[in-house]
């Protein structure tokens, strides 16, 4: 595995590879590091489907608000590098902030509508930062495929829409959320939970499991569904709900209040964000048409 | 010359070419059509410097304001195609609006600061549309070099900054403004001028010629310079000044009011926009450090 900390090194490695193996498929796994099994599953999939794999590890300041956890976001470059190498990554791109943003960035890639709900509403500017840094990575690496985890389902929706709107020539691969044995979605932020918070955090996954069943009930509408979802999560005394939502996916538009959920012809997302102490966790389920739940996605 | 009206045709042609001639250099000349000798000079330069040349002709609705001249902007696809072929263009990309924007575009590439003066101030949203469509063309064509005319000097500054901020792997080539024999900068919009407007429109170039001299005068400051520039243009009775500015280039920031122009260590731009009837014309000169005027740029 070759580790690149500068754009120039990265470009040289990619040029060498592309010259030596024209027509081969490049896969990108963009991450913020502090890698866990969820990231490993993206790397494995990229490795299976591509001839050459690039992992990027970059905690992007542009996607953190002024009162968010950029400074305390967990980092462990050595462990990340070892895990990347174990997963057969060809190039690890690990720039620092001044390498990615050598001058004040005046350019932003902004999306409307699909960024206005869920985490986009709770974290103003977050998806502008995501769109901008993902554009930069796509330009630097020019991957044929890029792998994103569905734990961040809105991020997937935003990146897919950006790719389509701006005619990027990359295929976005949706990868299933990985979970701990008790169902908690894997996240780099889980390390911040204390013992009691960690115990109660399983309410996210159990709420989603229940909610998948409620969605099938005759006469169930979005307002009733969301009320029941919030009540269920409220059973965990430490849970401070940011949102508990039901929307169309990937458009992230509202359902009509009086529409029976079973009548929806589009996939839906059940999406929740809950704070435990200082730690904000998110999780979701995509419910496909005809109430076939997408397995693990 | 191959004419492509869809993105799919364009991608197929480019893929065929890149497969057959790996490592060869692709040049792009992005235009809004109604081609004149200025465009021809871009095509010639691209042809000299690149192995494969793409001309795009697309009147981009995103860069026109609601009260601007999108509908009446001059178009002549047949003449454009003939001129492109005469200039040795390999692929002419000529999509219609529904091909470029098949769904409502939710994504915008926005720039701050460098878009806030000159035409960015007079035409709100204009450069958002430029950044967005140029990003799309860069993604579709993946050129090694892209050729832009310095008549639109702010557009060049915006595109250069976007390329640098977003790590696009394309080199932007600044090409000199071409002029009619009496000095009027060539523009597709010149056809809208009536006889008297056309006669008076030469005031733009003569003002810039004078202004280059004023800039060398000892003690000359920006406020005095701009006042003199506006007065000079005001000699043409039909001239309705939108702006007559002096700024740093390419940052488009103000000079200190009390600074002698000769003390500037950065290149400056003298930029003017003037309406004659319904037709808005722009022109500029870049004045390099030490008052060496950039020849024709």
TrEMBL record, chains A, B:
Binding residue positions for (R)-pantoate: 63, 155
Keyword Nucleotide-binding: yes
Localization annotation: Cytoplasm
EC number: 6.3.2.1
Claim: Plastid is one of the keywords in the record: no
Enzyme class: ligase
Alphabetic keyword roster: ATP-binding, Cytoplasm, Ligase, Nucleotide-binding, Pantothenate biosynthesis
One GO term (biological process): pantothenate biosynthetic process
Active-site residues (renumbered): 39
Residues binding ATP: 32-39, 149-152, 178, 186-189
GO cellular component: cytosol
Pathway stated in the Swiss-Prot or TrEMBL entry: Cofactor biosynthesis; (R)-pantothenate biosynthesis; (R)-pantothenate from (R)-pantoate and beta-alanine: step 1/1
Entry superkingdom: Bacteria
Molecular function as annotated in GO: ATP binding; pantoate-beta-alanine ligase activity
Pfam families in the record: Pantoate_ligase
InterPro entries reported for this sequence: Cyt_trans-like, Pantoate_ligase, Pantoate_ligase_C, Rossmann-like_a/b/a_fold
Annotated catalysed reactions: (R)-pantoate + beta-alanine + ATP = (R)-pantothenate + AMP + diphosphate + H(+)
Listed Gene3D superfamilies: HUPs (3.40.50.620), Pantoate-beta-alanine ligase, C-terminal domain (3.30.1300.10)
Self-association and partners: Homodimer.
Described purpose of this protein according to its UniProt entry: Catalyzes the condensation of pantoate with beta-alanine in an ATP-dependent reaction via a pantoyl-adenylate intermediate.
Anything else known: The reaction proceeds by a bi uni uni bi ping pong mechanism.
Name by which UniProt lists this protein: Pantothenate synthetase
Organism: Paenibacillus nasutitermitis
